[in-house]
Amino acid sequence: MKRMQVIRRNGAYVMIVGSLVVLPNCGLVDWMKDQMGGIKPTTKRVEKQGAGIVDDASPVLATMDGTPIVTEAMAEKEYVLLIKSNPQIEAMLPFMGGKKGMMKNIASSLADRKSLERYVTDRNLQANPEYQQELDRMIESVKVMLNAKYFSQEFPIAVTDNDTKKFYDDNKASMPELLVSRGGVQTTAVAFDTKADAQAFLQKAQSHGGDLNKAAEGSKLEVKDLQLVNNQSIGIDAALRSKIMNIKKTPSTELIALSDSQWWVVSALKKEDAVYREFNSVQSQLKQFLQEKKRKEVVEKEMGRIKEEYNIKLNDEYFKQEENAKPAMAAAAPAPHKQVTTKVAQAKQAVPATKAA
After folding, report:
1. Residue 323 lies inside a defined structural domain of this protein
2. Exposure check for the chain: N or C terminus, fewer CB within 10 A?
3. For 269-301, how does the pLDDT look when each residue is reduced to its tens digit (9 = 90+)?
4. Strand partners of residue 191
């Protein structure tokens, strides 16, 4: 059973690594240009070169028609990039035969990439206009992504430990990710229609030390266990919830009026403070969050600055014309019920009248 689990995990890891290696890495734009867009099948020899003949003097790990296509140096380069961009993969190595096992998977994936290049070259698939259009779109998208990445890196962001601690203290009550328990007031309660009945039960409950269940014994009264009442409690009247949360002393038994016909006797057993995750356990995540938040603010500010510097202006008149055209088109269009009425009338006119027998 354990062996089957290991096999399944190995298979999953191979698929993950394979997909990561088959996809181009840091040199994505160059790879797309050189390996996809730059393939020009003119002769048999050039077609094989399109599949990626290599000679870097390192041991050969894969061949195509006897010609080296993957070497140790190529696989090592991919291995370094893979670990750098996906550090969690290092934890998978024991399930994949160590680094050698990983290198074998990488070599296999690189061979798959070269096979795809060869297939595309041999059949001249890259000459398809749709292929070229999609390639252009992909290259443009990658350029936009890289422009944004390196533009943002022009403006270093500094977030100190003090900044992070202050953010934690100021926001821990409003961020669910930092909350372990909301705390609240442990409460039981009984509802009444009249003040007299509520006051009579209050006295009885106080004589039992605030135990509403004992006070309600032998009656048809329903004692509701509201558990911990806090500002996020559901299934409880908002006004009642607010009054319970405002109880200062616990334990205590109190009478709460919501209206002339709605009275509650509540037993506030104890008050629990909210519990939050320890700062040290979330410090790195919060710091990263603040860095991204600050970077976004700086980038937006700098984008506004360079747009002003480059005198960027939108043609507002064009968009106003578009907006003004919509109401006019809507007014010109006949109402649906009028269209139906007109068609029915036309149909009646088209049918000749029949004489009564």
Report:
1. no
2. C
3. 999 888 999 999 999 999 999 999 999 999 999
4. 264
